[in-house]
Input
Amino acid sequence: MAFWMGSAVSLAAVNLLLLGVLMTVWLYNYRTFRSPMLLGLLLFAGVLAVENLVAIGAYLSTEMIYAGGKTAMYTIVALRGLQFVALAFLTVVTLFPSGKVVRSRFELGDRSR
Output
């Protein structure tokens, strides 16, 4: 059971890392464009980050909840895994929208702006 508990906590921590990357990009874009869609994405990511923080706290402080049933722990790990896959896809399309590494004009040497 310790392996599955560790897996759930690890996946939640990786999800938090991906959410941090997404929130950084979306905050920068929101400050630039002031789009309500970006504000919505920021709020969505913030709520999901709080959920992952609460999940980690619950895993570490109330292990007895999951000790009674392996099915519950397998389900939680599977849900954390699905969340990771969804966040990984979202991170890739956010950071590489055209399918390749995107660099800013400044990085490419065009300082005419």
